[in-house]
Amino acid sequence: MLERFKVKEEDAVRVSEAPLRQTVTDIFKKMGVPEEDCGLAADVLVTSDVRGVDSHGVSNMLRTYVQGYNQGELNARPNWRVLRETPATANIDSDRGLGIIVVPKAMEIAIEKASKVGVGMVTIRNSRHLGMASYHAMMALEHDMIGTCMTSCPPGVLPTFGAEPRLGTNPIALAAPADKEPPFVFDAATSTVAGNKLGLARRLGTVLLPGWVADEEGEPIMDEVAPPIPGYAGRASSFLVPLGSTRELGSHKGYGLSCIVDILGGVLSGGGYGANPGRPNFGHYVAAYSIEAFMDTQEFKRTMDEWIRMLKLTPPARGHDRVLYPGQPEAEATEDRRANGIPFHPEVVDWFRDICGELSIPYVLTDA
Amino acid sequence: MLERFKVKEEDAVRVSEAPLRQTVTDIFKKMGVPEEDCGLAADVLVTSDVRGVDSHGVSNMLRTYVQGYNQGELNARPNWRVLRETPATANIDSDRGLGIIVVPKAMEIAIEKASKVGVGMVTIRNSRHLGMASYHAMMALEHDMIGTCMTSCPPGVLPTFGAEPRLGTNPIALAAPADKEPPFVFDAATSTVAGNKLGLARRLGTVLLPGWVADEEGEPIMDEVAPPIPGYAGRASSFLVPLGSTRELGSHKGYGLSCIVDILGGVLSGGGYGANPGRPNFGHYVAAYSIEAFMDTQEFKRTMDEWIRMLKLTPPARGHDRVLYPGQPEAEATEDRRANGIPFHPEVVDWFRDICGELSIPYVLTDA
């Protein structure tokens, strides 16, 4: 995460993992989610926070989910079911169930299939937000598999040369195990930045960097610009641009990758795509590849270690002190946050205090 | 393709598809490639030219292949074989066979597996250049499948914050069928631009655009710059940067996507990765997903049509007259080139005349 989007150290309230898990589990229980699923839901959210992926942790997502349950938009007790199945594939109807609960179950099916025939691939229709996509991909790691996850989201991103959003931020995640090194974990929106960066920039009073958004006529803004403020005119729109920002810099590639997510997570789920008229739902795609189905697993993991070290030992560019690999910042954040707690903005802690009061849950996150 | 990299209309010599196929087939025969594979090799190359993907057609690739066969670096009669296999997967040793010939055979295996268990996924080690990655992905289309292809190439691209190339241009291709509309076909390097753009810029005397390459110390150059000239000092290095160009614009995403290709096409093939010390080979990855294994095929295709039209009908941004979808420019180029011939630079036609003379092949491309 860019420094500018971190909670300032002097503002941060550090919260430990265990009471956070307990509190989040309790909140899901109060939402009517079946007892056995509440710990899973908490695990998806808190794992994001522990890995430093604050955008998909409790502070950004939990209140949206609570609102979704309260408004009846999320189904707390979905009757999700497999609609179609082959030895390597399945298609699931999520019955408006929250993705953070249904998608891990879909991934378990994919892993089971991969253990039998080498690959398992599952698409999920009529679902809702799945949290941090890499959570589901990482489920494959302990099975010595490669895991992947994509999700087709509601539109907010412009196609290259377009002036109206037609695609979601449509992230792609892939996790692959190594031997001694922390696993490779990639997880990124196919837009230049994730959607919530606009809100964060507004809240933190910071500018948007060049190449993040377009103006109202679809022209990518290639200098710094104030974030859009709803109800006020401004140069920046809230239209994100695909990874690559402009055609010359390769935005047609970010656009195409976003399309792939719309096809695999959306169209191939049978539930339509992000920009489907009147469609409030998300379509998801998960897959697991058994390493042993292709080659010796130990040799794969040893080669991954060698490859990871090769990347880490790249001589750094001028002005930088090291080269990272995808998954390394999150592994380092995990070490820090397990030791020192998860840094929350005081406003997030206040929300927890309020919601615990509202739902009659004991407040245990901080002493105060 | 950006206008600046097209052969100028006034320079172009238009060549028809049929004699080009015949000539390329004859050249492969002279290289010692088995008779039954020569038409396939020609099909991969000429399909690129017909689709307007000049970078991977005969003008850029064929002479490299001829050189590879002549130097014994390419094996004209590889004993390629399946090393490991499950119902949904296979791993192939290509025995130094050219990818444009071995990878279609691997894709046939993937398609066969997908028709039985829903998904087929094949990795290929110890191989060589596979031409236009989307050729292999597109093989799935006539089987009502989604096809995908990746290839882990020798290093030329910097990791984010790195000052030495560690990754190849590592392209990703995916093809999905529609009903009435030309298919969705995405095929792009995970670097900002493909490697041969540097040579092309040199040849055409044009500048490199901002965000395409870094300087010798790994700093991305964010303004226009003269292309590097071997043996002369210059500001630009020949180090490409990942899609996204800079960290702020999201280059860690292009970098991570390139890593995914290195893992799936390289490490998971068992043959190592692009930057493996002393490794001259390419590792490939192909997969086919049966649409019917997930949902009704006709419904998928109809939804693809609707989705494609939704993208095409996006109101264009200021200064643009339409929004394209991946595969559309190539479908339009095919129509034009089938009607009017493939435009070659005269220098390419000269090369054909020379090589035909050298190999005692009748020269049939142009009248002269």
How does this structure look, described?
The structure is a homodimer of 368-residue chains. Chain A has two domains: 1-77 and 341-368, Hypothetical Oxidoreductase Yiak, Chain: A, domain 1 (Orthogonal Bundle); 79-191 and 265-327, Ribosomal Protein S8, Chain: A, domain 1 (2-Layer Sandwich), CATH 3.30.1370. By secondary structure, chain A is of the alpha+beta class. The first copy, chain A, is globular. A seven-stranded mixed β-sheet of chain A has the order 2-3-4-8-5-6-7. Chain A contains ten helices and nine strands. In chain A, 57% of the residues are buried. The mean pLDDT of chain A is 94. Helix content of chain A is 37%, strand content 14%. In chain A, α1 packs across α2 (35-50). Chains A and B meet through α4, β4, β6, β7 and α7 of A and β4, β6, β7, α7 and α8 of B.
